[in-house]
Structures are given as structure tokens and as C-alpha cells.
């Protein structure tokens, strides 16, 4: 027992205290093949590409817009022309954006849950109307 205490460095070895020869050298990583410093996750890459500016002609005027703005504008245009899937996607995006953590959209959001429910009912009705066959198509050629 007393021999262990007399050894040099013996008191420094134990739980979470490896021997000096097995400790990492200063400047050496514990995971040398780990994630590179410059690598980004998927959300950061999407955000980077969505923020890039592109030239767009809108109303006969050429202007620069972020790619995300172009996508959202196109989605609203499709929805306003009666595309049910685009309208449904827009409502889902609005709902998802209103519950993002760290962002307070409750005061800015003029829509209530009842508004969303009635909008979804209208979209379902519009989809049924668009998919319904007209009476003259059912009879076929005479």
C-alpha cells in the first residue's frame, strides 16, 4: 500500500484521470476524424440557398428577390388561381410558422383556430367541386 503512494504520478491516476502517457497531447483532438469545422447542417444550407438573390421580372419590372421570396410568391399565385394543394400548403406553413420556438407571432397573427378550420373546410369543398364530374360528362356522347 505504501509503495503505491511512493510512485511518481500514482496519485494522479484514477477515475477520469488517465496516466500522463495516455492523455491527449496539447493541440491534439480527441476525435481527429470528426466533423470538420466548416461543415454546416441541412437547415443552414437550405437557409443559405434560400437567401440567394435572383433576377425576376414581376409586372414588367426587373428586380432582385431572394429565392425563398420567389417560391412563396409563386405559391400564393398558384393558390389564388384555385390550386387547392398550394392553398393547403400555405395554410400549413402559416400554422407552422406561428408555433416556431423563439418567435412570437401570436400578436402578429390575425387568424384564430376557427379561421383555420373554416379555411380548411372551404379548401375541402373547393377540391370536391373541382374533382366532381360535370353531368354532361357522365352521360357520354349521344
What can you see in these coordinates?
Pfam families: DUF5681 (PF18932). Residues 1-41 are annotated as: Disordered. This is DUF5681 domain-containing protein. Residues 20-97 form the DUF5681 domain. Residues 1-10 have a biased composition (Basic and acidic residues). This protein has 142 residues and is mainly alpha-helical. Among the domains are: 45-81, no CATH class; 82-132, no CATH class. It is 48% helix and 8% strand. The protein has a two-stranded antiparallel ribbon with strand order 1-2. Helix 4 (84-98) runs antiparallel to helix 5 (113-131). The protein is elongated. The N and C termini lie far apart (109 Å). Residues 138-142 have low confidence and may be disordered.
Biggest β-sheet: count, sense, barrel?
2 strands, antiparallel
Outline type: elongated
So how many helices? 6
End-to-end distance: 109 Å
> What structural class do the secondary elements suggest?
mainly alpha
In terms of per-residue confidence, which ranges show pLDDT below 50 for 5 or more consecutive residues?
138-142
Order of secondary-structure elements: HHEEHHHH
Radius of gyration: 31 Å
Biased composition (Basic and acidic residues): 1-10
InterPro entries: DUF5681 (IPR043736)
Pfam families: DUF5681
Organism: Ruegeria denitrificans
Helix/strand layout:
Elements: H1 2-6, H2 42-51, E1 53-58, E2 61-66, H3 67-80, H4 84-98, H5 113-131, H6 135-139
Antiparallel strand pairs: 1-2
Helix pairs in contact: 3-4, 4-5
Amino acid at each position: 500500500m505504501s509503495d503505491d503512494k511512493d510512485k511518481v504520478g500514482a496519485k494522479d491516476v484514477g477515475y477520469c484521470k488517465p496516466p500522463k502517457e495516455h492523455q491527449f497531447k496539447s493541440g491534439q483532438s480527441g476525435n481527429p476524424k470528426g466533423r470538420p469545422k466548416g461543415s454546416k447542417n441541412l437547415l443552414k444550407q437550405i437557409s443559405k440557398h434560400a437567401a440567394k438573390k435572383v433576377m425576376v421580372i414581376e409586372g414588367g419590372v426587373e428586380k432582385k428577390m431572394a429565392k425563398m421570396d420567389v417560391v412563396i410568391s409563386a405559391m400564393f399565385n398558384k393558390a389564388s388561381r384555385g390550386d387547392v394543394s398550394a392553398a393547403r400548403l400555405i395554410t400549413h406553413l402559416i400554422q407552422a410558422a406561428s408555433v416556431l420556438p423563439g418567435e412570437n407571432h401570436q400578436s402578429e397573427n390575425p387568424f384564430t383556430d376557427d379561421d383555420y378550420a373554416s379555411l380548411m373546410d372551404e379548401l375541402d369543398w373547393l377540391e370536391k367541386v373541382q374533382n366532381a364530374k360535370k353531368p354532361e360528362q357522365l352521360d357520354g356522347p349521344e
